[in-house]
Amino acid sequence: xxxxxxxxxxxxxxxxxxxxxxxxxxxxxxxxxxxxxxxxxxxxxxxxxxxxxxxxxxxxxxxxxxxxxxxxxxxxxxxxxxxxxxxxxxxxxxxxxxxxxxxxxxxxxxxxxxxxxxxxxxxxxxxxxxxx
Length: 132
What we know:
Blueprint lengths: L1 H18 L15 E6 L3 E2 L4 E10 L2 E2 L5 E10 L7 E3 L2 E4 L2 E7 L4 E11 L2 E3 L2 E6 L1
Parallel strand pairs: 2-11
Antiparallel strand pairs: 1-3, 3-4, 3-8, 5-6, 5-9, 7-8, 9-10, 9-11
């Protein structure tokens, strides 16, 4: 008799536990899309030669609107610059397209890196530039 009561109590606890769980979330919610930044520009320049670096920003398949961009900057740093890069604000040349024009006064290896935050995501692609 005690065995039957114990089994009944355990069964009732399992039933109550299963009923108290939240239902699975609906799959109708919009899935996050990837923030893609296509960074373009020359990989080699001569000393004091000017180069244009452009970032094309898309979210999923659509170009990001300026209102959706929370932050965009380009960082230029000499290799082994120990975090002493300079940050430049690009100009917008179209929906989701930003660019800077810069030159390098000393030979060496540099990185040009875009820092982009939009729609709650962040992306930071970079290009290595050799200056002779």
